[in-house]
Design a protein that fits this description.
With 126 residues, the protein is of the alpha+beta class. It is built from four helices and three strands, in the order H-E-E-H-H-E-H. The protein has one domain: K homology (KH) domain (GMP Synthetase, Chain A, domain 3). The protein is 56% helix and 17% strand. Helix 1 (6-26) packs across helix 3 (74-84). It is elongated.
């Protein structure tokens, strides 16, 4: 199975959907932030491993606590994933912190700060 095959794309989407559900509704660990999002999932073509890219809204401490909570709940998450998705193998999940959303928000703020004087000048001219 190729990495970008239709089957692999469907498996990635299904695993992402189920991981989001499990993390937001099933896990009761107080370390895991309620503002945790599964941004992307990359399941290996042999379906043995999986990289789950996680985004957490908050400070660095919230990110570290959430990652620690997810790693300690790894067995439970894998068991629930096996129950909800019917695959030959249940992938071993590796959680990776993704900061692309935060980066995008910061860049948008910086662009707005740069454009604010320009917009103020345009309003004065009108």
């Amino acid at each position: 199975m190729r990495k970008n095959s239709v089957k692999n794309t469907r498996i990635n989407a299904e695993v992402q959907k189920e991981l989001s559900r499990i993390i937001s509704r099933e896990i009761k660990d107080p370390r895991i932030s309620p503002m945790t999002t599964v941004v992307d999932v990359a399941v290996a073509p042999d379906i043995k491993t999986c990289k789950a890219y996680i985004s957490v809204y908050g400070d660095e401490e919230a990110r570290e606590n959430t990652l620690a909570g997810l790693q300690s709940a790894h067995g439970y998450i894998k068991r629930e994933l096996a129950r909800s998705i019917n695959l030959r193998n249940t992938p071993d999940i590796r959680f990776i912190m993704d900061q692309s959303i935060e980066y995008g928000v910061n860049m948008a703020k910086k662009i707005d700060e740069i454009n604010a004087p320009i917009h103020a000048r345009e309003k004065k001219e009108d």
